[in-house]
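Task card 7
Instruction: Convert sequence to structure tokens.
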Amino acid sequence: MSASMNRPKILLTGATGYVGGRLLTVLANRDADIVCVARDPQRLEHRVNDRVSVVGGDVLDASSLEGWFQGVDTAYYLVHSMGTGADFEELDRRAAENFGRAAAAAGVKRIVYLGGLGSGDDLSPHLRSRHETGRVLRESGVEVVEFRASIVIGSGSLSFEMVRALVEKLPVMITPRWVSQRAQPIAIEDLIEYLVAALDLPAGEGGIFEIGGSDRVSYRDLMTEYARQRSLNRRMISVPVITPRLSSLWLGLVTPVYARVGRKLLDGVRNPTVVEDDRALDVFDIQPRSMSEAIARALRNEDEACAETRWSDAISSSGRPLARPDAPGGSRIIDSRSIHVPVRPDLAFSPIQRVGGEAGWFYGDALWRIRGFVDLLFGGVGMRRGRRHPTRVVPGDALDFWRVEAFEPDRLLRLRAEMKLPGRAWLQFEVDAEGEGARIRQTAIFDPVGVAGRLYWYGLLPVHALIFGGMLGSIGHRARALGAAPSTSGTVSSEILA
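Output:
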């Protein structure tokens, strides 16, 4: 009998998200077989090894769950729909029903679920949905270990990035009432330790466990401690009349959080999220870190310019459904341009994989920022998400208001738009060897919806021509500089296809 047949089997949903990605790293070091389920399996291909496999599926599609749970001992449920529209509660309910039903039918021994702290009859829709999801999973008949947590502090977490952006950018902050609400933040390392410890919990000891760090604090306390550790002098002035909508727009302008997620986040902050039942401290041998320790660790990791996972990794951070250039749709409009450069293909591709984030878009950055601002006003993601790493790219990475859909080293980068648009859009870069150099092809694809979509594209045609032409020229210039070749040797051609 092979060793793999004796190893426990773990199913993990949400591995493309912030917490799930961290959990996968730890689980991969255990003596177990891990099956990751993702709507876009390509995003996890770089994580596959002899113990980690990836299958495609969607918890909202009951038929796609068939075969997921074969031989599974423990299943982690780390998905939610907060980044989607107003019907996210119904989506969460349906997803949990599908998951619980399939797990029960396959004889799964335990489901581990991460929910949210909060109590009382006046819970926000977000927290209410988190609690209902746990209840629906328990009704499946499978034993459930439900952890309820508050703010998660770690490099790349939504709460930490929000606090960091506010304190770094605003010497004086006009703060609404929500900054005084009490919470019990938990370090991402401690949260992961709890999730892993659930694997070793004896059968029959499942239930709801409220978990948090050692401090009960407010967002004001978090910002004050962050400023102290960064040696920043910050002043906060409370203004109680700021509405959640205005607060969310304000967050969208200053932080990586965009308006739609900001409204749901702030709506949840109206409820205290503190541990009322500390049974988890007796059941699990874990001593959670303090707020200051959690911030210090997050800062150390953030200073490396590459958080292992980020809140924007999750597809739900865009609120838009998956789409591909070859998916059925309207009559596409294509802007394709190419340039020959007398350098090796890897040098020609080097500038491309650095695009976005702090490096900008190589041409017309002011216009890109204006587009990001307009996107924020309409509830989109804007430009605040940046990019995970200045040079490394993997499918699924958020890149300003784009998502990396496909990446082949030194050859292909395809980005899918996640900004608000009357249609769907992609931006693709390809590099191929040509003669003694390389040809860089840059293609913008727009799939308009109705008359509004075409009016949008053709109304901005001069701007698109300026930006796309300038971007390709700048990429070519940077590639030639890397190859130390004369800047006059490239020849640009372009074609506009409708």
